[in-house]
Design a protein that fits this description.
With 323 residues, this protein is an alpha/beta fold. The chain is 28% helix and 17% strand. It has a six-stranded parallel beta sheet with strand order 3-2-1-8-9-12.
Length: 323
């Protein structure tokens, strides 16, 4: 069953306790109003109608979306787990979603990564060519994600933060970078939802049902993207598992709060305590909503932050040059 925005909001409220005063309903409605969206303007929250064109994920038994890929560690944790014994969080997540490493077949999984930082483009292209030469489907998308399609200015900070959308977060340097962003809900609907799934074959991993999993680490933009995925029906209907973080518990970046979203006309502010309350209630309600098929793990794997392993070798194959 495909759930519309109103149905999802009603279902979320139905499982909320009286003490929360339907917290998610209030939160989502308030944020939509803050962004100029209300029930009389539903088109802003509707996902673009898919076309009959071929999808990027056609032929993919499983799909992994690495949203906020950085240097691409998670695709390496998935395709080359033997190189990363300490990446326990990611490897356990993949084992649960896609099956044990000993039975998993890399040709069954297609990976799509989203990373807006141009400093990492060449690395992702090398990974793409190397993996595609082995017939492992990896497609890096050089863009950020958001709740609407457009452009955004990121800033290179020159420290551990690396890349931020907030100029006020800069402490060492603040080099601007104008990059495209994609509405993630539209992209998933267009390129992944209702994809052509290959028939079950002889691989042991094919005993696992087809899955779509996502890692999300998009540096505070989750407070715009996740509600959009939820209200559009994409999250609960098409994503089976998510691993990620909401950043409110990280002491090392506590100085970044509060966060300001929107533009000058539709600006709204989120403080750290409210962010914690939102994420806690959102996860609890998803867990108890029988109409939502998504399992959310509020964890990310920050091991091997700088990778530390040599890049895979590009094999001599015509597939290495495929887009």
């Amino acid at each position: 069953m495909i759930m519309g925005r109103s149905a999802i909001r009603s279902a979320l409220c139905a499982v909320a306790s009286v003490s929360t005063v339907c917290f998610v309903e209030f939160w989502m409605g308030a944020r939509m109003i803050a962004n100029g969206v209300d029930d009389s303007n539903r088109s802003r929250n509707q996902v673009a109608t898919p076309t009959s064109q071929p999808k990027l994920a056609d032929g993919c038994y499983h799909v992994f979306l690495d949203v906020g890929s950085n240097i691409g560690n998670h695709v390496r944790f998935l395709f080359e787990p033997q190189l990363y014994p300490a990446a326990r969080i990611a490897r356990n997540f993949f084992n649960e979603v896609f099956g044990p490493e000993s039975e998993r077949v890399n040709t069954d999984v297609c990976v799509f990564s989203f990373e807006p930082n141009p400093d990492h483009y060449s690395r992702h292209e090398h990974l793409r060519r190397a993996y595609n030469s082995l017939d492992w489907r990896y497609t890096p998308i050089h863009a950020g994600v958001g709740h609407q399609t457009g452009n955004i200015t990121f800033y290179h900070t020159g420290d551990d933060l690396g890349f931020t959308t907030k100029k006020s977060n800069c402490r060492r340097e603040c080099r601007p970078e104008h990059v495209p962003i994609i509405r993630l809900a539209d992209w998933i609907k267009r390129e992944v939802a209702d994809r052509q799934i290959p028939q079950i074959g002889g691989n042991k991993n094919r005993e696992m049902p087809p899955r779509v999993a996502m890692k999300m680490d998009i540096e505070f933009m989750e407070y715009e993207v996740i509600p959009d995925l939820m209200l559009s029906g994409i999250l609960c209907n098409y994503i089976h598992a998510v691993m990620g973080e909401f950043h409110h518990d990280l002491q090392s970046i506590a100085y970044l709060w509060p966060m300001t979203y929107g533009d000058e006309e539709r600006e709204w502010t989120l403080d750290r305590e409210m962010a914690k309350q939102i994420s806690t209630e959102w996860l609890r309600m998803m867990k108890h909503n029988q109409n939502c098929n998504t399992k959310f793990s509020m964890k990310d794997d920050e091991s091997y932050r700088n990778d530390g392993q040599p890049l895979p070798i590009i094999q001599s194959s015509s597939n290495a040059s495929l887009p």
